[in-house]
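Could you help me review a protein record that somebody else here produced? What it holds is a sequence and that sequence's fold in token form. I need someone to confirm that the token line plausibly describes how this chain folds. Take the sequence as given and treat only the tokens as open to question. This is what I was given:
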Amino acid sequence: MTLSLRSQIILALLTLAAIFVTLLTLQSRSFEQALSDQSLLTEGQSLLQQINTLQRRGAGYAAVAPRDWESYNRDVAVIYSGWQEDLAALQQNVTALAARARTQFSDDAGIMQQLQTLQDAYQGFRNGLNEKIGDNPERPRLEWGAEYLAAQSPVLSERAQSFNSAVARQVQQHVDRARSQQLLAWAVAAVALMLIVAWFWFRVIRRIGNVNDSCRAVSAGEFGTRAPEAGNDELSTLARSFNQLSSRTRVVLGMLDKLPADAPPADVFDLLWSESADHLGHHWQGLFEVNPLTRVAVLTAQQQREGVDFNEQAMNYPMRAILQEMADQGSTVWSLDNLRHHTLEQAESRLLRELSRRGMHRIAVVLLQDPANQRSRLLAFAWPETSADHPGTSRFLASLSRFFSSLLFPQERPAAATRTSTAASG
């Protein structure tokens, strides 16, 4: 299936939009990943700070532990309750850190191992602290607990630091991978953009420029100028339509410009061939004299390209059916796009068969009339290939039937010459 140029442009724009949406999606995912990684690093640093705080408090209390009950009771109310709050916060931080790490790095065996080591160290730290403090919340052994905090917190801190280092290394890998992906994505986007721009230039802008240049040439009087017709889209259709207009105008103006005064019909016929064959593209051209009674046409003149070899000069061709069809349609032209697909009787189709044997595929026959003497001639054109513009060519030839009649009937030549001189002077 061939896409129209409009569809191709829309597809190119959608492709470009999809590329940039993909880029934005990658950037958004990278940003979300960076936020998650930063949150995990922040929680790891917060855990490390909490452990260090417990160590300082334990070491500080162990250095000034009270030696009397009054001070002890005060410390239970103040110091011990502070420890409990810090330990609760530490427990909450460890739980949140483990949950986030399992969400982000569940497929990373190294980080999972570090996390398990940290959790085991934390659990051993809490069990050992509980043993030192004792199971009586009203009479905790604060001095022993303080000594334990001062001695064992560095061990837990080391485990936390190892975990943080492993996470930091993985985060750096994320950053490097995201940067590489973004660079690759932007490189692909740049290449795609350049390809789309190049495609747009060659498929749209340059072709519009070619048609524009051809229009300028025709407006400057260079009739017959053609624009490139490559492709099968809207611009190709525009170029073909322009070429048809330019070529047909060139045929008419060429005849008017080169036709000498009082030229005989044979010279007019030959001039028509030389001026129209390259522009209309036909490979055979014939002129027939029609008997008004029998409706039989005699081939009186012909022109053909090399290889056609239509040697049927002065042969009779029944044309009754073709002339009757013109009369029924009120037209001065009869055309057929496929010579093998016709509804004419055997005798009436003789001309079509002869042309078909010589490689012709379509035909257009123009009726030329001389009202003064009731004479008729037929001007025929044949092409070796089909064309989507065959109806347009037929309409063009029909519009020129009176012009051709004035040129190919001798008694109207003075008027034709007058019109030619008038057109030249204008």
Observations:
- DSSP finds eleven helices and six strands in the chain.
